[in-house]
Specification:
By secondary structure, this protein is an alpha/beta fold. The chain has 15 helices and 12 strands. It binds 4'-deoxy-4'-aminopyridoxal-5'-phosphate and glutamine (GLN). Pfam families: Aminotran_1_2.
Length: 378
Amino acid sequence: PYSKLPEAVPSIFTTIGKLAREQRALNLSQGFPNFPVDPKLIDLVEKAMREGYNQYAPMEGIYSLREVISNKISSLYGKQYHPDKELTMVAGATQGIYTAITAVVHEGDEVIVLKPAYDCYEPAIAINGGVPVFVQMKGIDFKIDWDEFRAAVSSKTRLVIINTPHNPTGSILSAEDMTELESILRDTNIMVLSDEVYEHMVFDEEKHESVSKYPGLSERSFVMASFGKTFHVTGWKMGYCAAPESLMKEFRKVHEYNVYAINHPIQKALASYLSEESNYLQLSSFLQQKRDLFIKAISPSRFSFTPAKGTYFQLVNYSAISDEKDVLFAKRLIREKGIASIPISVFNVDQLDQKQLRFCFAKTDETLLKAAEIIIKI
Ligand code: PMP
Ligand code: GLN
């Protein structure tokens, strides 16, 4: 009776990761790169530590980093966030997401979640007494049915969560999607939590559509970013939240007494590393090469797929191979074939099983080719 999350179970990343380690399988499941971090970035962290940036940072993050972030957002998306009032450094996007939800979701509030959805949204909604309202994205390209979305909006809707580029599907929201959302939310008090941790991983000349580009959205949005994704350092747990002053004020009330401040020397290093655009603008082409290498190498297989438009995840469909449920099929591939992936029914409404697995292609070419060798024999 004391449990606030009676239904929560260990995440699919925990479960599959453990099995993959036990079986020594090639691990393309949890999303993290297996290639080295830029030594320049490591040097900058070491320098910051040696220079003495080892005590508490300011609550909202160091000014120099917030200033570079503000300039970056303004040059990419044309929106100026005030470094002092509208940007806060967080210990990874997961923490930022939890904080934003806790700051604004009251008991009984409805939160619209597009499914499949990354798994950290719902526990945060539940622990705050919110009620998730699901809209399942459908079809091979996981488009949002905006009529269904509109029907999900009610007088109790407090927040909408969007994620582009999207984990686990690798799809992206288009400019039309964003204007549709902007028009649905016009004249409401509904807020948006925009999970944009994969903003620098968009392929085939497509553009990332940040809520920051749309005034009717940015005025009501918390935007979440993660340096773990952008700089191949998922273990550092560093990110930021951008939001208009009125929302950021509430965000900081929770952040200050839960986290207070985040890693100081890494903030110092990031401030200088982030000021060189090429350190993040080349990520899309770097990962597109990886995606292309991977999908070319698995094309003789019995899996079917459409190339990911963003993120470092490729979904594949195995209905030509097996009728087995995706969780069982993924576990069997680990045990019998030595390769680990993420089954995606766990992210869907009612665990809807579309016979799809997610492979992470943020791996060395060698790992990707080894994986493909296994995949084409399945
Ligand atoms: N949102 C999405 C969609 C993600 O894929 C991830 C990382 N798996 C996160 C948030 C969390 O990011 P972080 O590691 O910075 O907490
Ligand atoms: N974001 C990573 C993924 O989607 C996993 C992070 C986690 O394990 N919670 O694979």
